Amino acid sequence: MVETTWQSKEIAGMAHRVMNERPDLKWILAAGISIGFLESDRNKKKNGRECLAECIKVRDLYKVYIPHDFLIVVYKPNVSGMSERQMEILLYHELLHVGMDDTGEEVKYIVNPHDVEDFRAVIDRYGIDWAKT
Fold first, then answer.
1. Based on CB atoms within 10 Å of each CB, which residue in 52, 72, 122, 129 is the most buried?
2. In a domain, 28, yes or no
3. How many domains are contained in the chain?
4. Distance (Å, rounded) from C-alpha 130 to C-alpha 133?
5. 48-93 pLDDT, tens per residue?
6. CA dihedral 96, 17, 67, 32 (to 10 degrees)
7. What is the pLDDT of residue 119?
8. In this structure, is residue 132 part of a structural domain?
9. pLDDT confidence of residue 126
10. What is the rounded CA–CA span in Å between residue 54 and residue 115?
């Protein structure tokens, strides 16, 4: 079977709602950071565990073809059965990976690592097992 990936207006709409509702994410919109939202039928695994979604920084070399600063990919087989609330939490988690380093002469986009096993902000708000609720 050939794995496919496609742009998702549904995921984009949900993610924009999350960014507008969460004060800690509004800076992404204010900074004009462009994020492409994708879905994939790939059953991705990372370190032997299902990967629900991931945030990828678009390398400068690829910006000629990809008009975004970041891509967020949701792996449909791995999120099937998740509620809309769980999907919003997943997107919140992925959006927390979007980062910007403005300490040097030039602003650089970065993918923020987890500050604990997940992000403290996700755990504090939704609990450690948010994907299972």
1. 72
2. yes
3. 1
4. 5
5. 888 999 999 999 999 999 999 999 999 999 999 999 999 999 999 9
6. -70
7. 64
8. no
9. 74
10. 16
CATH number for the domain harbouring residue 68: 3.30.2010
Give the pLDDT score at 118: 63
Q: Give a yes or no: residue 131 inside a domain.
A: no
Range of the domain at 39: 5-126
| Mean pLDDT across 20-30 | 95
Cα–Cα dist 131/127, whole Å = 9
**What is the CA angle 110-60-119, rounded to 5?**
20
Q: Where are the alpha helices (DSSP H) in 22-83?
A: 26-30, 76-79
**100 beta partners:** 109
Within a domain: residue 45?
yes
CA-based angle 100:18:127, to the nearest 5? 95
In the chain, the percentage of residues whose pLDDT exceeds 90 is 70
- Measured distance CA(12)–CA(68) in Å, rounded: 13
Give the integer Cα–Cα distance in Å for 97 and 60: 18
